[in-house]
Write a structure and sequence with these properties.
By secondary structure, this protein is mainly alpha-helical. Helices cover 66% and strands 6% of the residues.
Length: 163
């Protein structure tokens, strides 16, 4: 891999993390009653997304939709099959109960994501028009409304429709 390719992927990772961090900061600013600061964090987060997408595109990492589905599924399989189980084990060994619990949730959700991607792959991208609902506690993703999260047990009011 060339130095430029390495730099593009490092820049993509950094910009992606900044986006997510700033969105978390925006939520906190909203909770703190500072809506203008929250708006600023969201605006800069969007700019970071533009940067990240451009770096990824310049690195040649965006393929056809079916290629992207395969890549996304492979990432989810790695996360639920290797990454999160190892992180869960480490957190348990260190007595980090909250982290261990959430690593378990995240791993289970990544397996669901893998299955959703596989469904899209099998359909060659031609999916039925359904709404996706996310559990704000653990990230469980469901086609259509749901009464209770099968991963973390959250009630239906913890779910929101993805726009």
């Amino acid at each position: 891999m060339s130095k430029t390719q390495e730099n593009l992927m490092a820049a993509f990772a950094g910009e992606s993390q900044a986006n997510r961090k700033y969105l978390a900061y925006a939520k906190q600013a909203d909770k703190d009653g500072l809506p203008q600061v929250a708006k600023l964090f969201r605006a800069v987060a969007e700019a970071e997304t533009i940067h990240a997408h451009t770096h990824l595109r310049n690195a040649g990492k965006i393929g056809s939709t079916l290629d992207n589905l395969q890549d996304a599924k492979a990432g989810e399989v790695y996360e639920f099959g290797k990454m999160y189980p190892e992180m869960l084990k480490d957190a348990e060994a260190e007595g980090e109960k909250n982290s261990a619990r959430y690593f378990g949730f995240a791993g289970a959700v990544e397996e669901v994501h893998s299955k959703l991607y596989q469904k899209a792959i099998d359909a060659k991208g031609k999916l039925d028009n359904v709404d996706y609902y996310l559990c704000e506690t653990c990230g469980y993703t469901h086609e259509g409304p749901i009464d209770k999260c099968p991963i973390c047990g959250a009630s239906a009011n913890a779910f929101y429709k993805v726009g």
